[in-house]
Amino acid sequence: MAAFPPGGTYFDNAKRSFTQVPVNKSKEDAISTTEFLEASESLTGLFDVLGSAAFRPVKSDIVGNITKVRNRQLEAPLESETLQDLCLNELKAKKHTATEGLIWLNRALDFTAQGIRHNLSHPTEELSTSFRDAYGNTLKPHHSFIVKPIFSAAMSATPYRKDFYPKLGDDQTRVQKELDEWLTALEERVKILNAFLGRKDVIKW
């Protein structure tokens, strides 16, 4: 985990927060691709804070899917300024690697958001319980019997909440405020993508 200045928080060192990911309300909630991928990369640092080697597969999965989306963006930048355009234009080209990658990336982001939100809403609940419930709601239904035990092991290896939140910053009032703002922005973008990626013209492949 990268250090932060006294009085600072984990979010001070993040390259991009989900609060900084533009959403164009006038264009059907179009989400800017570059900023979204940067925020997703920054999110993986939370798994380093969680500290267990068991979370490496979770982080690796997210990074791999970010790469799939970014490769498409680099291949066709003018058609990929927003995530929605990136997917629709890729599908027109009879491809779906990046679109599939975004589906899995969004599931992982949803898992992370639900786990942290549930934990914040239940102050006496341990992270392992919160993340296990989130896993059941998001990734687990789509995982094979080979992958499920790997991710289940990660849920059981989460630190105690009394150890986790102090790692995000010394000033817990500021930590809670910034974590909630980040989480609210993440949840909004996950919700937008869930609706888009569930469209018949997007999942037809």
UniProtKB/TrEMBL annotation:
Q: Name one Pfam family in it.
A: GLTP
Positions of transmembrane segments: none
Checking SUPFAM superfamilies in the record gives: Glycolipid transfer protein, GLTP (SSF110004)
Q: Cite the Glycolipid transfer protein domain residue spans from the record.
A: 31-169
Domain of life here? Answer: Eukaryota
GO function term, MF aspect, one: ceramide 1-phosphate binding
What is this protein's name? Glycolipid transfer protein domain-containing protein
